[in-house]
Amino acid sequence: MFKTHSLSFAYYQGREFWFPDIQLKKGENLLILGESGIGKTTLLHLMAGLLKPNSGKIELMGTVLNELSLAKLDHFRGRHIGLIFQRPHIIQNLSLSENLALIQYLVGKPQNKNQIKAILDNLGIGHQLHKKPRQLSQGEQQRATIALALINRPQLILADEPTSSLDDKNCTKVANLLKEQASATNAQLIVISHDQRLKDQFQNTLTL
Amino acid sequence: MNILRLSFRNVTSRPLSTVLSLILLILGVGMISLLLQVNRHIQQQMENNVRGIDMVVGAKGSPMQLILSAVYHIDDPTGNIPLHEAKKLQKNRLVEFGIPLSFGDSYEGFKIVGTNHQYPELYKATIKKGHLWKRPLEVTIGATVAKKLSLKIGHIFNGNHGLVKGGESHEDHAYQIVGIFNYTNSVLDQLILTASESVWDVHAHKDIGNNEGKDHVDHHHQDEDHADQHHEEENRTDQHHEDEDHTDQHGEDDDHNDQHNEDEGHADQHHEEEDHEDHLEPPENEHELTAMLIKFRNPIGLLQLPRMVNEKTNLQAAVPAYEISRLFNLMGVGLDTLNTIALAIMLVSGLSVFVSLYNAFKERKYEMALMRSYGATRWQLVWLVIQEGLLLTLIGFILGILFSRLGLWAVSELMEETYHYTFSGWTWLNEEGWLLGASLAIGLLACILPAIHVFRINLSKALANA
After folding, report:
1. What CATH number did the domain enclosing A33 receive?
2. Total structural domains in chain A?
3. ipTM reported for the complex, 2 dp
4. What is the pLDDT of residues B277-301, one digit of tens each?
5. Structural domain containing residue A65
6. What are the residues of chain B with a beta carbon less than 8 Å away from any beta carbon of chain A?
7. Chain B residues near residue A83 by CB distance under 8 angstroms
């Protein structure tokens, strides 16, 4: 269960964002559409606990994110929230499998090579296991970031413009991938985008 | 995969700045460690060799030179002293023992020292093979000599005149090796020991000549003022032939002067009246010593004897303890300067580590934020940065120590080649523990600013702007 309640945030005084309440059950997904500058990324960062809201609360699995201490929040996010960012960023000095192993390590989970191999195979980049990020193609990098977000089997997957740099074919592919992965772990998926192509892919849409 | 491995990857991923930091660290750490080691070895050698010797008596000259030549055998002797004067000193009630040393010859660059059995005893030398010399021209050799020249008992050799290889050799007086010492880690390892008589025998023909020369010189010195006068007068008398007696005296003085000229380097000695009397009837072929090592019966000796010898005899007394501390004081200035330079290099290396870490942080700000968003805590990231800094300085320190050991080995080879001195033992010094602490502190210091930045990273901003 994920819900937000009367969230607001201001980067500086006088320009406050107010966000509609969101409520998702296990296995549900949601597309949040909106134009640039309307506060989409801000909302995502609030939901991920990267920003602290001025008012309101964010609740995942009964835990109120904005009431946690910073260290606990980091840990909670690492275990239960998977983040996919607009541009594919992966730790450059580590190979793909090492990136995934590090993420497992950071939340204190055992480093499971089979799980790493399985998730990469699932995303179609299993053969790139030992490649450094810069040796991967754009599309492979995009899929790699999905692997990073999903390796710890999060309850909530948050994706920020995952398809904006992709063509139609790959756009559909990535959207399907995200949905598949989310339903595989019975996670809640929230995608934030201005990409109208995604409209047809999701049953719930919220326009800011 | 863990934070340490990531630190390591990050360090190796920027080879240029890493290598620069490492080179600076190696230079700084290596230099300081090398200085510490060399200093310790020299000090140890110096102290090891001086044990039991309270005072050294030799010919007038530089006291430092006397100590260096008679105790450490690394400088030329100041000259010779008459045996009977040394013996007189030996009988002084404040003297426990006096060990005679006469040297001037060498074999393959190793000094042949005429002495008595007390000398090896002083260094607690034990016999490895054979026995101590019993007759003149029998020698017992130090362990290093035996090893370097692969000499065995029974080997017969001729000594060379002088202390360097290739001097004129004494063909008709062959030494025979009758014993080899165990290692003493002292100067003894580098010496060929024999009876004082051997050296006198080998030099018999020359020494008599020298003795005569010296006696004459002594006369000359006593009459120095007269002689000068005579010289002036000589000119006059040569011209005028006025005074017969004077002319005779001149003749004598001329002889003395000629011989004095042949005999070099003893010109500025001063004589007391009693010596003058001694020399009125000099023993015909009196033996000479190069120096005598003296141990006092009690500390009063130290207060009285050096002064007595220097003021009342034509010998020179030098106190090793005093000369060595003087030497270390002189060396200390140079060591301090080098230490300061090395310390400066270390600080610069710290700066380079800082720049390297700071640039890396700016480049990888996004990665740091990414790691946070994947569950890394702030302290884990701070630890990541600190580990990178410490990893760099630690590797630098280890390489620096290796570098210093390599340098020490080179210096030791050089010392052995030049001075026949061996450095012993590769020990870890306490000071090097401090050096490790200082290196790590510098590494930690370099981390502080990047670590603070990492700690205060604004996740949302860093991720959104990337």
Report:
1. 3.40.50.300
2. 1
3. 0.87
4. 444 444 546 788 899 999 998 888 8
5. 2-207
6. 1-3, 5-6, 9-10, 13, 364, 366-367, 370-380, 459-460, 463-464, 466
7. 373-374
